[in-house]
Design brief:
With 559 residues, the chain is an alpha+beta fold. The chain contains 14 helices and 22 strands. It starts with 5 loop residues before the first strand and ends with a strand.
Amino acid sequence: MSRRNWVALAAPLTAAALALSACGGSSDDPQGQAPPAEQGSWDINEVDPAALTDGGELKWPVDQLPDNWNMNHVNGALVDGKHILDAIMPKLHLADKAGKIQVNGDYLESATLTSQDPQVVTYKLNPLAKWNDGTPFSWTDFDAQAKALNGSNTEFSVASTTGYEDIEKVEQGASAQEVKVTFKQKFSEWTSLFTPLYPASLNSTPAEFNTGWQSAPKVTAGAFKVETIDQTAKLVTLVRDDAWWGAKPKLEKITFRVVERAALADSLASGAIDFYTIGSSVDLFQRAKAITGATVRQAPGKQYNQLTFNGAPTSILADRALRVAVSKALDPMVFAKGILGPISTDPEPLGNHFFLTGTSNYQDNSAPVKADKEAARADLDKLGWRLEGEFRKKDGKQLDIRLLGGAGNPITEQISKLTQAQLKEVGVNVVIDLVPGATFFKEYVMPGNFDMVGLAWQQDPWPISSSREVYFLDPDAKKQNFGAIGSEEINAKLLAANAEFDDAKRVALIQEADKLIWAEGHQLPLYLVPGTRAVRSTLANFGSFGVADPDYTKIGFTG
């Protein structure tokens, strides 16, 4: 799959409200605040797997179970589903704790750019790699996935075509376990492709792609396999897969259970779960420090909270100038300080949509929407939205903006109320609409049934592959551009960066695209959420992974 921004919704990744993580402090921190963390670090209680107890169950809380077990489907790109599928499906490339991309030797012997013009990538599969129905991995799995995701057949409801649309053909090499991928257009972030890899059977027809894996994955190839999916109990149980050829996992079982956010701390204290993500919740942060046998593990996160605007003709924010004016009235630091409180001593605003604060390519491009309420008032006046009493009106219509959020998520409620209060100061009326988590994504976000919506984006190490579908405007397929906002100029910059192999030139093109995105009033990042979890103290090789991919075979208990 083309890597994309993993969407965390104001409870969906979850159930339908911002799926947030937040920075926490150690339990013995006398100030109760988080110390600064450095990029390239993690906090996972690193222990040699040989020293861990063999067996045990990791009890993992989630906000919701996947709507579709095909992560390449438009309804499958949710973070909770990714956590489960990462244990059972092939990831051909992995990020280490510094964010460097490594070949996953369990599935590949090598993956090599064998030609730049035309671009050709050759994969040599691990001869031991096979699906758990006994079928060996082969070039046909790559061929079927490329054809399903290249966008040529719109009956496949894909979340992203990035990278796959640039492939000309997939061929067998010297054997069925050697794959030759030839590109018709250059795609610099090719290591993002075919992760996860799915069996050819899933991608065989649009019907199978769209609904075949809706209730359960049919074939897997990981250290674990699915034992049960209980939709009534909202529980997924994974167990060791005896067909696995790699390192034997230390855990015998991983259970993923839906747990309401308000119940997380009590569930950890009672032993019902083994960790929880603190997110932006001061309450969860403070309570974690008081739980016997738990510790707070902290590393920089790769997720940020933001407000997405709707630029469709049906929304009052279809006017770009109005979106920009509204953005100027919202100060990200008010959100960061008001929500994080003691969790973060010195939060920073996020001024880039592609590169996170603290990473080498980060630069602040947010000048077009710099927080300035006086400028916002002047812009609104100029646009004809005049203050009449408490709120502004134009041609007899009041400036009402409907802000969508997920019910039952306190962070979503905080963000909503802070948005409402700040915009009221400039005469804009925000109508908060909190909807059930079960319908939040499918019935509201995807169809564009909102004016503004609070979401969280989780980014992967490939900036274009992670984010292009969010900012690329395609009138025929919205994909993850939920607000349908963009321009031909932004599209051109993203496509040029997509094809640029020179790192410096590619970064420069991305920065140019980012400046245009800010000026378009596409979305407003509120703050970067450091990744912090409250974790059972005996749990090893698990916690806050920073930018790294976890190794599920090494997770276990010290006693």
